[in-house]
């Protein structure tokens, strides 16, 4: 019964506060333990996209039926036997990949504010899984920058998987034919590089607890491009302060 009561208490706290220390405080702090768990949950998306892109770019663009291969009784200059086969040009349907990328984009954007965080199912799951571990409070601002990078990577991959849709949108918006609508105009190396970078960033955060995007944000703050609250304040252990205050109050009342 105690375990059930504890679970429902944790569930109630997650529904009320999510991964936030206090939804009403400014600046906003989130539990980095839950952030890493969430990154691990979402890690399967860039893994799947990496294999999809590798197959689309480097895989065979033809489907060959081995049962139709016929020996022509001839050889090429290197002595290789020449076969006549029936081959079909592969067609790619990226509907699943598109929906997964749209969901990943939604997750990146949802975590950026207190209100939209309540729309993310992975935030609820990660927050609940993190309840049994001591929280590590980190400011939301650097994480928001990191997720902005992720959202940008995802948007580029969406364009790669749906070039004609994006081309029609751009052409209709500008009134000119700026992009072709019948061919892939984005170089293959762009989405392939970005998906592996994204995979690496998420793996590092999940396994090592190191947020590359946050470090980039920190560098931009140092050079004056961004501004944020005092970094020294980010390392304050508010829970420890609260415990010490409670102990002092108890000693004084005793």
UniProtKB/TrEMBL annotation:
<keyword id="KW-0812">Transmembrane</keyword>
<keyword id="KW-1133">Transmembrane helix</keyword>
<protein>
    <recommendedName>
        <fullName>DUF4395 domain-containing protein</fullName>
    </recommendedName>
</protein>
<keyword id="KW-0472">Membrane</keyword>
<feature type="domain" description="DUF4395">
    <location>
        <begin position="81"/>
        <end position="222"/>
    </location>
</feature>
<feature type="transmembrane region" description="Helical">
    <location>
        <begin position="145"/>
        <end position="169"/>
    </location>
</feature>
<feature type="transmembrane region" description="Helical">
    <location>
        <begin position="33"/>
        <end position="54"/>
    </location>
</feature>
<feature type="transmembrane region" description="Helical">
    <location>
        <begin position="189"/>
        <end position="212"/>
    </location>
</feature>
<dbReference type="Pfam" id="PF14340">
    <property type="entry name" value="DUF4395"/>
</dbReference>
<feature type="transmembrane region" description="Helical">
    <location>
        <begin position="100"/>
        <end position="124"/>
    </location>
</feature>
<dbReference type="InterPro" id="IPR025508">
    <property type="entry name" value="DUF4395"/>
</dbReference>
